[in-house]
Amino acid sequence: MLTEFGKLYVVATPIGNLADISYRAVEVLKQVDLIAAEDTRHVKMLLQHYGITNKLVSLHQHNEDKASPVLLEKLRAGQSIALVSDAGTPLLSDPGMPLVKMVKDAGLDVVPIPGACALIVALSAAGLPVTQFSFEGFLPRTSSARKVFFNEKVMSPKTWVFYESCHRILASLQDMAEILPLDRQIVIARELTKLHETIVKTSLGKALELVGQNDNMRKGEFVVIVDGAAADKNEHIITAEQEKLLQVLLRECSIKTAVAMAVEITGVRKKLLYQAALAMDKKKDA
Ligand code: SAM
């Protein structure tokens, strides 16, 4: 006898404005046998708004390894399940990856129901290049790890995007300003689709001032988008940390050796480091 397996629907929900949900998502949430939600209390508000009275189970980062096999068995038994997170698209900095992988690996259907995703919403209104971009999720929590991250990104020619909380937005911008040039264009997208939605495109230096001086600019949820390094700008930039490294090496070695070592450590182009080393050497003699 052929068994009809259930389908797993990955359903995007609003990131603020409850109207930002598709007709199809509402239909799916009404019709499935079960909704697996990151926070069942949170999703109830959305369900009530749309008159959906469906059965809920919780699937969050602390139980998903245990809960996912149970849900797979329900799918095998023919039940259909909708996966939702607290906001936006599940799996994007949200739970769901173990379940989706397990269901795919088992050869069952995973059906995406598209909708809001904060990084895409922010990019669509940022006015920075989007042909190619990288999404970096949440940044590391410690300042030193963030600086390592910014050092890795400083020369990247692509636009990059990260999520940030109100607790760390100022500290992250301060760290960024130690590594990136202050005239680099960035976009701070805050409280998207909500009452206090703010999307500011400005230089890193001005953004730091704005967030530092205005309490409201440190409230809510944030997406930060950073312009890639322009090819012509790359010709002239080395970061403050790379400069410091070069200075230390120059104290101990010849220009040639210091530059060779700095190239190996930083991955920055030799010509650029060589020019910087010559300039430092000149300054020393002046
Ligand atoms: N899965 C979600 C998505 O599709 O965007 C992201 C979930 S992640 C746990 C939450 C983070 O997304 C927030 O800390 C914030 O950085 C960003 N975010 C979510 N909603 C937002 C909004 N309305 N405005 C700005 N950022 C938002």
Describe this structure in words.
The protein is built from 12 helices and 10 strands. β2, α2 and β3 (56-58) form a beta-alpha-beta unit. The chain has helices at residues 23-31, 40-49, 64-76, 97-105, 118-124, 143-153, 169-179, 204-213, 231-234, 240-252, 255-266, 270-285, and strands at residues 8-11, 34-37, 56-58, 81-84, 110-113, 133-138, 159-165, 185-190, 198-203, 221-226. It has 286 residues and is of the alpha/beta class. The protein binds S-adenosylmethionine.
Q: Can you name the CATH architecture of the largest domain? A: 2-Layer Sandwich
CATH topology of the largest domain: Methyltransferase, Cobalt-precorrin-4 Transmethylase, Domain 2
> What's the structural domain tally?
3
The fraction of residues assigned to DSSP E strands is 15-25%
- Relevant CATH superfamily of the largest domain: Tetrapyrrole methylase, C-terminal domain
Brief descriptors of the model:
binds S-adenosylmethionine; Methyltransferase, Cobalt-precorrin-4 Transmethylase, Domain 2; 5-stranded parallel sheet; Cobalt-precorrin-4 Transmethylase, domain 1; 5-stranded mixed sheet; alpha/beta; 286 residues
